[in-house]
């Protein structure tokens, strides 16, 4: 449960013998791998995998051994075996060193082709009540006008399905032929009805045939019991497949991390591997009926889970020879910059590997507003493929996409005689460096606030989200008393000060860290003469350095390595650097240094920064970030940096919100409530709060959250602690206060600190 990639498997607390084999890095989930001979005493699944319809395992049954899951029945005898998905060790994308789009077939969604031979399609989802035909039609138009290639609409029941026919007809009359997608949960017959009107059906394999999400633990007494559930799901699903095939409708088999069926949970827990198998159960039914106009998605609110699930999906499709397109999305990403950052990390990381044919950025905002960040991501992914971003082959050997593990650099150590505590240069959970100009140094108190220092009588102190170090392109001269005083006060509270070695030679600064290029550092054999006052050295690299030059870092006195690369090489060149460092057993901390131009607006910093640095951080590659832009406020770049670390599940400095993007099922004003909860609880680092508009995205999607606020009836809210509902049917007007009290009752509340008045110089500025 401690792992960010395994959310409290239902085998984690009780009956350790029942824990399943799991490749996730969670010590609470373990299991057994055994060889299954042709005549196994453990029952039918040891001899044949036919009852559970796993063609991939069937095709490999002739091999001498295969991995299986052991499940103990009530009499404590090993009798059932569950075949694993067989995933290749290293193949999930076309090339590890370049962005090359994964080849897929083309599927047609109305008049929109989706696949690797076509532009990345953009999607969003309406928030109106589907029965309100006029309002829904108008919202679809706004989305289409904003650039949506497809628009999804929620369909709860027959009333909504009938309304969908009117919606489709009215849009055609208004000359809008944008394909519409029905979002289906729980209602197979309704799905068949709406397929007559809409161009695409999205089904959730976790609840399409299995009903509402429960956390019931199942012990299967016989293989026939499990097979019966699979056969029942096929029986329920087949009519929709036949309908879609006959009408040439498209389908998305869209797995959600938090709404896996009890059957899948019983074998895999809430893991990426379980997400893939959940989708494949339904894909096999499609293929059995010779229906291929479908694609997959693997959504999760945790970008690390999401990325690994999509990679496992792609890997298994390579193994099976499947070529179906992939829809990308981070579900319940939230609002504002945080929602955009989570989406950039998850979607951008996959686009950098050439994975993804259609995308949605799920934000707790008006749906048409999703199109702008969605378009930026699509443009980024398209450019990466068209321009073949990457580097020459280097024989990557150290990155395992199936198992998450974070590379941890060695923190700086204190030396005898030091007059400053250099251990504060970096933070063990991920570091943030802020680029600071000479002008910034002239406004001391304002800079302290932008760096998120706590101020006491105008004096700065490090706080939970204070930048760990600052970086100066220029060093103020010794006679600049104001700037020197600002630097001294920061250094006194262990904020490190880095500057290029040439700048420090021109204007020496006590207790500074000199930054030198790796080529220069290597040419000097790892020993450089430091300017007066400089006590440590850091190294900067652009990715073109040789393996021999990188090897010089091992055992050297360099306290950190700054990777400053062009965006079109960053992901793959950085992978090469990390690969070499691991081979050399060099644990120098690595900071991703991203430099933006004045033409790059704030959203560009978030989207591009989250995509390229996030693609590395989701692999555990990197010890921190530094974002630099000539015209951006220090505070914005610092906040964005910390958001990137938190979105990558590294360093928590504020409350984490899992907030659904709203749809026709939503039972309260999601944007207003989210803003209200965020304003009152946003100061609780380490606490995760899920805000869900309805039960569809309720307990399951809250798998990562500590507390949940879920709409159940109009005007009524249920409150959760973890997955357990603890207060039901609370009036909406008192529900936020009740949530706060619940946080207090669980000893997770701290009072917000009073906000100091803005210094006069900042107000004047």
Q: Can you walk me through this structure?
A:
With 765 residues, the chain is α/β, with parallel strands linked by helices. The chain has 23 helices and 27 strands. The protein has an 8-stranded parallel beta sheet. It has an 8-stranded parallel barrel with strand order 13-16-17-18-19-20-21-22. Strand 26 (716-721) and strand 27 (724-731) form a beta hairpin. The longest helix is centred in the N-terminal third of the chain and has 25 residues, at 223-247. The two termini are 48 Å apart.
Major beta sheet, strand line-up: 10-9-8-7-6-5-12-11
First and last CA, distance: 48 Å
The chain-level structural class is: alpha/beta
Number of strands: 27
What Rg, in angstroms, do the CA atoms define? 27 Å
Low-confidence stretches: 1-84, 760-765
Q: Give the biggest beta sheet.
A: 8 strands, parallel
Q: How many individual helices?
A: 23
Shape: globular
- Percent helix: 25-40%
- Average pLDDT, rounded to a whole number, is 84
Please report which band the strand proportion falls in: under 5%, 5-15%, 15-25%, 25-35%, 35-45% or over 45%.
15-25%
């Amino acid at each position: 449960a401690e792992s960010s990639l395994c959310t409290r498997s239902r085998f984690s607390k009780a009956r350790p013998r029942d824990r399943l084999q799991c490749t996730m890095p969670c010590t609470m989930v373990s299991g057994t791998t055994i060889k299954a001979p042709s005549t196994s005493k453990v029952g039918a699944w040891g001899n044949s995998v036919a009852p559970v319809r796993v063609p991939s395992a069937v095709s490999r049954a002739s091999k001498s051994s295969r991995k299986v899951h052991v499940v103990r029945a009530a009499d404590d005898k090993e009798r059932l075996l569950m075949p694993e998905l067989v995933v290749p060790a290293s193949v999930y994308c076309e090339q590890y060193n370049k962005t090359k789009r994964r080849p897929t077939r083309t599927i047609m969604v109305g008049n929109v082709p989706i696949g690797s031979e076509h532009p990345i399609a953009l999607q969003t989802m309406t928030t109106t009540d589907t029965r309100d035909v006029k309002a829904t039609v108008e919202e679809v138009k706004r989305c289409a006008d904003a650039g949506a290639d497809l628009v999804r609409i929620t369909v709860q029941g027959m009333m909504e399905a009938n309304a969908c026919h009117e919606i489709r007809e009215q849009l055609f009359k208004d000359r809008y032929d944008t394909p519409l997608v029905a979002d289906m949960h729980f209602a197979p017959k309704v799905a068949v009805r709406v397929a007559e009107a809409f161009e695409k059906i999205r089904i959730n394999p976790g609840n399409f045939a299995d009903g509402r999400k429960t956390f019931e633990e199942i012990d299967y007494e016989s293989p026939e019991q499990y097979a019966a559930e699979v056969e029942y799901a096929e029986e329920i699903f087949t009519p929709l497949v036949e309908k879609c095939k006959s009408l040439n409708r498209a389908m998305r088999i869209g797995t959600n991390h938090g709404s896996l069926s009890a059957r899948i949970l019983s074998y895999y827990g809430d893991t990426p591997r379980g997400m893939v198998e959940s989708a494949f159960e339904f894909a096999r039914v499609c293929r059995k009926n010779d229906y291929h106009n479908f694609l997959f998605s693997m959504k999760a609110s945790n970008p690390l889970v999401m990325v690994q699930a999509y990679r496992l999906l792609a890997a298994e499709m390579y193994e099976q020879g499947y070529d179906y397109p992939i829809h990308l999305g981070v579900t319940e990403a939230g609002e504002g910059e945080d929602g955009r950052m989570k989406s950039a990390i998850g979607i951008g990381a996959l686009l950098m590997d050439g994975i993804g044919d259609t995308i949605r950025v799920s934000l707790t905002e008006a749906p048409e507003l999703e199109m702008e960040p969605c378009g930026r991501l699509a443009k980024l992914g398209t450019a990466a493929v068209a321009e073949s971003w990457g580097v020459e082959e280097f024989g990557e050997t150290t990155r395992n996409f199936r198992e998450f593990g974070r590379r941890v650099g060695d923190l700086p150590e204190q030396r005898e005689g030091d007059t400053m505590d250099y251990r504060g240069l970096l933070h063990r959970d991920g570091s943030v460096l802020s680029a600071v100009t000479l002008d910034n140094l002239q406004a001391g108190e304002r800079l302290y606030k932008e760096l998120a220092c706590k101020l006491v009588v105008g004096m700065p102190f490090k706080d939970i989200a204070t930048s760990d170090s600052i970086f100066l392109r220029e060093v103020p001269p010794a006679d600049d008393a104001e700037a020197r005083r600002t630097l001294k006060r920061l250094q006194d509270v262990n904020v490190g000060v880095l500057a290029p070695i040439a700048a420090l030679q021109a204007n020496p600064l006590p207790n500074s860290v000199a930054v030198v290029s790796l080529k220069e550092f290597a040419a000097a054999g790892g020993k450089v003469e430091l300017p007066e006052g400089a006590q440590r050295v850091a190294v900067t690299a652009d990715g073109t350095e040789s393996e021999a030059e990188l090897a010089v870092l091992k055992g050297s006195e360099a306290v950190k390595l700054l990777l400053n690369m062009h965006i079109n090489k960053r992901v793959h060149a950085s992978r090469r650097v990390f690969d070499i460092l691991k081979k050399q057993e060099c644990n120098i901390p690595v900071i991703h240094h991203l430099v933006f131009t004045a033409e790059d607006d704030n959203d560009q910093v978030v989207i591009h920064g989250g995509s390229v640095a996030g693609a590395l951080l989701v692999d555990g590659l990197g010890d921190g970030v530094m974002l630099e832009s000539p015209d951006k406020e220090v505070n914005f770049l610092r906040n964005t940096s910390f958001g990137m670390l938190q979105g990558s599940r590294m360093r928590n400095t504020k409350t984490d919100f899992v907030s659904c993007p709203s749809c026709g099922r939503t039972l309260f004003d999601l944007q207003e409530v989210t803003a209200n909860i965020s304003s009152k609880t946003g100061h609780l680092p380490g606490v995760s709060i899920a805000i869900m508009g309805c039960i569809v995205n309720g307990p399951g999607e809250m798998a990562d959250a500590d507390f949940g606020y879920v709409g159940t009836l109009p005007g009524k809210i249920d409150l959760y602690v973890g997955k357990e509902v603890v207060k039901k049917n609370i009036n909406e007007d008192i529900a936020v206060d009740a949530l706060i009290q619940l946080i207090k009752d669980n000893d997770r509340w701290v009072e917000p600190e009073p906000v100091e008045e803005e210094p006069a110089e900042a107000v004047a500025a």
